[in-house]
Design goal:
heterodimer; A: alpha/beta; Rossmann fold; 8-stranded mixed sheet; 9 helices; 8 strands; B: alpha/beta; 2 domains; 6-stranded mixed sheet; 35% helix; globular
């Protein structure tokens, strides 16, 4: 038995998702208090719960901290260029429609440089599940503000606070045609896992935003303290509102203590997925 | 496309087109996209990804007069160097340059086979004149079209982990696709044989040298050119694409006038047929080269670095073909 097989054999008996992680890639590059590991954990649990064999799952990431997710999951996995995870994933999904293709990437990758691909993948209802990890900034490159940074929140490129209105991602995803839209945080471990599982079972473009702390960059620039403090904000202010149709009001403001953070599975509708229209 | 078991997707932009054909290739498809000038520039980001992930794909670029938007729908040969060097860093590619509609077909077939054989992006570098030309084209029966499949894994997924980047003697690794059970990982980061990121100079040197060498060291097998009257030519016209059609006319007329001239037409513009040009120079007959091209000297640079013999140039930056009589005048001079 090789070391690799040995690790597989023994760890598979220890924890149900260990075989879905690339143990030989550890230690990972993520900071203490980062939320990305929890999302990878949720993805792996959803694979295990899906009943769909591992060989049919494919994970694609873009660039950034969240873009490293594809490197840690033990399924066919691709780490594409910045912003291009979605069209790369589309190529896979079009050629092999029986595969379950999940894109795990960050808010900067998916909604800034990849924003055009996001709206078009949603519009054509591509058979792709997106897990968009939103940490409100470009964490890997030092905490620059981006299209999800709340107004007033600070970053290295906005030392006095961001003056631009951010994207409301569930609203954007719904408006551009996603058939499943959810927002959870890394505090909502089971709900997140269920949302990812629902995406895997549902044809078409499914979008789940996951709020996650970035204590190293966004957290320190905004005096949020260690990662667990941001999770405490989620605990205090998150309001679960499944099926809420009024997504336009769901902006996130981490600074305003009185503003709730609305989470839930907001949209779950039927529409012919790309490739089912007889093209 | 569905009639022949294929799929067509109208993507939102050229960044996406290039990324999508690489993704499709990762899933095992032979994949293709087409563009002109500025679109080719947009594709360059992911040309680097295809080179780094070693995912085969084919791109047709019908060249226009450039830079920028330039002269859309008017001829140019402005992308010869972009095709070779357009994405950042060192890597190998193959580019075919057809000079007739029949060659557009034949070389596209060849492009798919070469992409799969060497696991590289391959370009069919046309120009607007060839791209819009109408001529007789013979399309053989499907079973008469040469087909060279990719090298696949030589062991089952259960036997041992598959090494996506363990190259054979030809420097090309076998490929496993998404959904085949091998649990591959591919990244644009510098990576080891497993495909895992390897953030160090040693791994980078091994990988990048192999990406370059698998084309450089196999160049004699890849390289194609056409030659006319080179056995005794003192003046050699080097031309590709539509320019070669004018050049051929000029050379024929010059031979009729008794002038000692010939033509070399690179069919693979990359790898450039430099071995043949060196041979001609070493044989000692050639006294000078004539290089007509629809740019301000991209191919001339390639010849300049091979020889100190005189090179007579005929350039325009695009919008018109060089006329045969202008080339003939240079041969006569």
């Amino acid at each position: 038995m090789t070391t690799h097989e040995h690790i597989r054999e023994t760890t598979a008996n220890i924890h149900p998702i260990d075989k879905l992680l690339r143990a030989d890639r550890l230690p990972h590059i993520l900071c203490a208090g980062c939320g990305i590991g929890t999302v990878i954990h949720g993805y792996a649990h959803a694979i295990a719960a899906s009943g769909i064999e591992e060989d049919r799952h494919v994970c694609v990431s873009g660039i950034g901290c969240s873009g490293r997710a594809a490197g840690y999951v033990n399924v066919d996995s691709y780490h594409a260029t910045h912003g291009r995870a979605l069209p790369f994933a589309l190529g896979i999904a079009v050629h092999r429609p029986e595969l379950v293709v999940t894109v795990i990437s960050g808010d900067g990758d998916l909604t800034a440089i990849g924003g055009n691909h996001l709206i078009h993948a949603a519009r054509r209802n591509a058979n792709i599940n997106v897990i968009c990890i939103n940490n409100f900034n470009y964490g890997m490159t030092g905490g620059q503000v981006g299209p999800t940074t709340p107004v007033g929140a600070k970053g290295t490129t906005a030392p006095t606070g961001s003056a631009e209105a951010p994207f409301n991602l569930p609203y954007l995803a719904k408006a551009t045609g996603a058939v499943f839209v959810a927002r959870w945080t890394i505090l909502h471990v089971r709900e997140l896992q269920d949302a990812i599982l629902r995406s895997m079972q549902k044809p078409g473009f499914c979008f789940t935003e996951v709020l996650a702390p970035c204590p190293t960059s966004f957290g320190s620039a905004n005096q949020l303290g260690p990662g667990v403090h941001e999770v405490e904000i989620y605990r205090q202010r998150c309001v679960v509102d499944n099926g809420n149709p009024r997504l336009e009001g769901l902006d996130i403001d981490l600074i305003d203590e009185n503003k709730p953070i609305t989470v839930g599975n907001f949209v779950d509708v039927e529409r012919a997925a790309f490739g089912e229209q007889g093209r | 496309m569905p009639e022949v078991g294929a799929r067509f997707v109208q993507m939102e932009d050229e960044l996406a087109s290039m990324a999508a054909i690489i993704g499709a290739s990762a899933a095992g498809a032979r994949s293709f996209t087409a563009t002109s000038g500025p679109g080719f520039t947009l594709m360059m980001e992911n040309v680097g990804l295809a080179a780094m992930m070693e995912l085969p794909c084919v791109v047709a670029n019908v060249q226009r007069a450039s830079p920028s938007t330039g002269l859309p729908t008017m001829v140019g040969q402005s992308d010869m160097l972009q095709a070779r060097w357009g994405s950042h860093g060192d890597y190998g590619i193959i580019a075919y340059s057809p000079s007739s509609p029949q060659e557009c077909f034949d070389l596209t077939v060849r492009a798919f086979n070469a992409a799969d054989q060497y696991r590289v992006p391959v370009f069919v570098l046309m120009d607007e004149v060839v791209g819009h030309m109408t001529e007789r084209v013979v399309i053989p029966d499907a079973d008469a079209i040469p087909f060279r499949p990719r090298k696949g894994p030589r062991h089952a997924p259960s036997e041992r982990p598959f090494l996506s980047y363990a190259a054979d003697a030809d420097l090309v690794p076998p490929i496993a696709h998404a959904g085949e059970g091998y649990k591959v990982h591919m990244t644009g980061l510098t990576h080891d044989e497993r495909g895992y990121p390897a953030m160090n100079a040693d791994a980078h040197e091994v990988l990048v040298n192999r990406l370059v060498d698998k084309i450089r060291l196999n160049a004699d097998d890849i390289e194609l050119h056409e030659e006319l009257f080179l056995d005794d030519a003192e003046t050699v016209v080097v031309a590709f694409g539509c320019t070669a059609r004018s050049a051929k006319h000029a050379v024929d007329e010059a031979r009729d006038e008794g002038l000692s001239c010939g033509m070399l037409r690179p069919i693979t513009i990359w790898p450039f047929p430099e071995r043949r040009i060196r041979e001609l120079i070493e044989a000692g007959k050639v006294k000078r080269f004539v290089v007509p091209e629809i740019n301000l000297g991209q191919m001339r640079r390639e010849i300049e670095r091979l020889t100190s013999l005189p090179i007579l140039r005929l350039n325009n930056p695009g919008g018109q073909m060089p006329r045969p009589d202008a080339i003939l005048e240079l041969i006569r001079s």
